[in-house]
Amino acid sequence: MKKRVTIARALKEKNRVAGRLAKARELVGRENSKDKNVPRGIDVSETYTLAKTLRDRLVSIKTAIAEANGPIVSKIIELDEVKSEISYLNGLDVKEGRFVETNYGSRIETELEAVIRQPQVLDEVTTLQARADRLQDELDEFNAATKIEIEVDE
Q1: DSSP 8-state code for residue 146
Q2: Cα distance between residue 110 and residue 93, in whole Å
Q3: What is the pLDDT at residue 152?
């Protein structure tokens, strides 16, 4: 049944449908090819048909969400890139100082110097996280206020 729902609700429905699709595909993959004397736990053809129906429904929901997101697509992209930058900075090697390594009995001493140091990384991450939080709040408000029509389970 088609129904007008908020984008927030549509996103939840998308996740539910995606989960059901993944489960159906997993069942088909597990049960499809078996020794002919071993009974199958499901009707593979029926479950595969269900998977195709769920796939089409998922495409429909994702399309409706994408079309409705037109006015905020730049914010969605920016949020994704800000999160990516946070992840990158959190993984950046900022070690400094003298380090001694033992390799096959020999001692190797190295002195490391970081150009971008830990305090700068922490400042950058704090600033980026605040930006990500503001963007997410804007997206949440848009998703709660904007309605689209999708197929939903009742």
Answers
A1: -
A2: 15
A3: 86
* pLDDT interval class at 154 (50, 70, 90): low
3-state helix, strand, coil in the chain (%, to 5): 65, 15, 20
Strand partners, 97: 112
Q: Which residue reads 């020999």 in tokens?
A: 106
Number of CB atoms found within 10 A of residue 49's CB? 13
| 3 state SS for 19-81 | HHHHHHHHHHHHHCCCCCCCCCCCCHHHHHHHHHHHHHHHHHHHHHHHHHCHHHHHHHHHHHH
User: What domain range is 13 assigned to?
Assistant: 2-151
- Residues 69 and 76: beta-carbon distance below 8 Å: yes
Structure tokens at 10: 């549509």
Spatial neighbors of 138 by CB under 8 A, at least 6 apart, are 72, 75
Beta-carbon neighbour count of residue 120 at 10 Å?
A: 14
Q: How many domains are contained in the chain? A: 1
Please state at what angle helix 73-91 crosses helix 118-145, rounded to 10 degrees: 150
